[in-house]
Write a structure and sequence with these properties.
alpha+beta; Immunoglobulin-like; globular
Amino acid sequence: MPKILFTLFLLCASLWPVAVANAQPASRVAVSLHAESTQPAPGRTTMLAIRFKPDAGWHGYWSNPGDSGLPPAVKWAAPSGVRIGPLQHPAPEILRVAGMTSFVHGGQHVLLAPMQVPASLKPGDALAVRGDLDFLICSDSLCVPQKATVSLNLTVGKGAADASSRALFNAARQALPQPLATSGVFTAVGQTVRLVVPASGKLDPARAMFFPTGEGVFERAGAKRLPDGSTEITGTMASTPVSLAGTASDGRRAVQLRFLPGRIVASATPAAPPSEVTHSPSQQLRQQADVGLAPLSGTAPAPVTETLATSATAGLPSNGLAWALVGGLIGGLLLNLMPCVFPILSLKALHLARSGSDASAKRDALAYSFGAVVTCVLLGVALLGLREAGMAAGWSFQLQNPLVILALLALVTGIALNLAGLFHVRAPSIEQGPSASGTAGSFGTGALAAFIATPCSAPFMASALGVALLLPAYQGLMVFAALGLGLALPFLAIGWIPTLRSRLPRPGAWMGTLQRILSIPMFITALGLAWVLGRQVGIDGMALGLAEVLLLALSLWWVGRRQQGGKAHSWLPLLPAAALSLGLAVVVPAVANTPAAVTQKSAFIEPFTEARLAQLRAAGTPVFVDFTADWCLTCKVNEKAAIEREATRAAFARHGVVTLVGDWTRGDPQITRFLAQHGRNSIPFYLYYAPGKEARVMPQLLTPAILVAMASGSPSRA
């Protein structure tokens, strides 16, 4: 008997690893696959359905599970050419456990997936479909990862619907969120988000919820019906969204839609007096622009009646658009005086000096203006397109790419060598007199001026562009066009007003000397761009970039020699140089080193993060926030002339002011979102947080006196 028991023990012990290896979690859900047609037609689409029937008290997860959970995933296997689309979910329910919010499907739920049958299949062909599922099934206290394989053996036919599955598919389709033809509108200030579902959504405000697509959780605070029948839902999100899309549902009806950045326009019903309402800087910006963002529910004692205004319905109030256009025009005009524009002044000076007759002067002025306006509009199109795609992009985004810096370095070096007399451009050029080709050269000069001048921000420009991103696309592009027109306005005036043009020096031999002198700032600009490239991609990348520029300079020198000798096809040396330069340009990002982080120069200078800003404010510490970039000349001038001066440092140290530096050189999405919260998308941008107070927006041009006076408003800690 003992031997028998010992033998049984050894047998059980030997089988234990096998049992453990093959053990599967107990299934808490039945999963099945269904086809709307068991004989799908070739060249047409039929719907598949995966039905989940969990045990009582168990649930699955939506495509965005929320704070916890996993969405179901399926790997399909089907004959070649058969395409099966992504899973389509019904609207979810909200489950809150231990302070976490999850989006779940409770009880039986059906996920649909469209299957496209290729036209190459013939009636009678076998069509086997298999799906390998990975999903999570949970109760209130336990979660069990599950795997399941579902399959169907179909036959290609005429596409007749399967009567036994008709009720299943009809119910599943009715449960899907219905797409809305019109977009909603949302506003975001910090973590507070307000979104408006158009009246066509027909949602019950008492039960209306929003479930964002992708990731993130929208915590509903309240909802109400607006006079035009739309539904406003107010809530919070952990991070400020740049764009929003998702499902809005009241439990009986669900709609799927995208939300565009916009505003909610206050009606004539009187709001609370200004002294009784506290507004954030971004709210103040929108009110100054007359965009009309009303206070959030609960922030003002007086009731406010609101209506939805979108590009498709009401449009922007005329005063708001007019303000943005005037701001863009003045900002572009002042941009001519900003230090970051100085390197391009050489091109502008030569352009004006060579104007001839009235007709040619007007033609050149128009061409120059058209080049500036078109470039600003194209940059605006790119910026709006990136933001529409969900990317956190701001004005001057183009200089956050090292390849753009490298291209500008090569271009500016070529211009400098041309002005220095190393070679002469016989195509449209700033050296030529008025002509048809000179008009093309004027257009190119205006485009180049706009491209190089716009990265830094001027007074009025920042607010105008911030508002432009809240406008409908066509109105926003009007603001960008106004910016380009403002940049070209002085030259447009000189070209069309003979009295102004008569005050310019007449062309003569002095222009050759001036041309050589004006090459100096262009060489300095090239040096600055090389430094920016080094900051972005490191020493190795900068060395390759300089090698490309050296190759370009040698080829242009060769071109100049051939021109002096009167040889035909003098531009031939540029062809191999261009090919090698393109090769080097491809290599530069690949060898890029990680740029050095913002160094902590003292105990009072730290890299910017929103978390650190919140900590310092909670501790009652005065904070100066400096958003800068290596390619922003205005930022660097402010640093050397004001921020890093001894008087400023002493005042900051005496009053315990901590400086948080936000480096936007390569485009930081966190900084882009923070700027957007304050109605900005360009730099320089400076904020000062006095203890216990809201942010104070500082001027874009700083002096030590301004910063010392700012710090002196805080208690001395000396």
